[in-house]
Amino acid sequence: MNRVEEALLRSLGLLTEVKAGRGVAVLPVGSVEWHCGGPLGADTLLAVVTAEMLRDALEDEGCPAVLLPPVFYGASGEWSGYAAYGSSRGGLAAYLEGLLGSIALLHDEIVVVNGHGGNTATLRYVVESLVFDRGLRARVWLVEWWRLLGHQLGHMDRVEASILATLTGEKQPVCTCKGLSSPYVHGVECRVEGWVEPGEEGEKLLQGLGEAVKRLASDVCRETVTARRRRSASGSGTTRPSRG
User: Fold this and answer.
1) Helix 3-13 vs helix 158-168: angle between axes, to the nearest 10 degrees?
2) What one-character-per-residue DSSP string does 18-61 give?
3) Which has the higher per-residue pLDDT, 36 or 186?
4) 7 lies in a domain?
5) Quick one: which of 109, 118, 126, 181 has the fewest CB in 10 Å?
6) Contact, 167 vs 2, CB < 8 A?
7) With b meaning 16 or more CB within 10 Å and e meaning fewer, what string describes 231-243?
């Protein structure tokens, strides 16, 4: 069993009870779509691995955290009908609104770890709608692994392929795609430009991701402690969240 399979199983199997108020809830969100011959669930796998890193880093900082099972299916309309199993953006938004609302009844701090660029706009809409329009009292952070690395994500580009190769222990395709970035372009064209093997490149990227996650955990933990002190001082039990 490789590293990413172990992380996925842990996210699915280790949660045995609902732990209300037990610190930060970490929710991975991904997609199931074509990755030029790589894993259909590549985005979900990377979200789970990043989320597990974050859960561990939060615990190391002294902030209790729980890793929730992932949302596998995302917004993949550009592949609809031939290369993905997914949801419309409206359908995903409705589902996530309900899910995050439920999580917020149990946790004051939520970190959503997104692994799919096609989810970004929907997730931002959902978080802003819940917080600013519906008065969600939990603080919600939206995190994307490629932004933590300072990377402009492509579809199964060399960075994503290198990380996946190292995590799975298997070579992965490197894609070049056209038509993904604009909703006005009909048809997506992708081709395999080469393959990347497990090795030093992926290990360095994972190391950099781990360091970025630790910095994020420090920020989340510090703000979590501050928010709790404010709630305790006010006696209200809640504070108005800031957007993460």
Assistant:
1) 80
2) --TT-SEEEEEE--EE-BTTB-TTHHHHHHHHHHHHHHHHHHHT
3) 36
4) no
5) 181
6) yes
7) eeeeeeeebebee
Give the DSSP letter of residue 70: P
Q: Confirm whether 72 is domain-assigned.
A: yes
Residue pair 173/195 in contact (Cβ under 8 Å)? The answer is yes
Q: What is the DSSP letter of 69?
A: P
Domain that holds residue 198: 22-220
pLDDT in tens, 75-98: 987 776 666 788 888 999 999 999
Domain holding 53: CATH number? 3.40.50.10310
Residue 239: pLDDT band with limits 50, 70, 90: very low
What is the chain's mean pLDDT, rounded?
86
- Give CA–CA dist 240/85, Å, rounded: 37
Token pair of 20 as six digits: 């209300």
Instruction: Classify residue 229: in a domain, yes or no.
Output: no
3-state helix, strand, coil in the chain (%, to 5): 50, 20, 35
In this predicted model, what pLDDT tens digit does every residue of 52-73 receive, in sequence order? Answer: 999 999 999 999 999 999 999 9
Whole-angstrom distance, CA of residue 173 vs CA of residue 210:
23
Inside any domain, residue 16:
no
Residue with tokens 């610190």: 23
Of residues 3 and 113, which shows the higher confidence score? 113
What is the Cα–Cα distance from 112 to 101, expressed in whole angstroms?
13
Tokens of 165: 């190769």
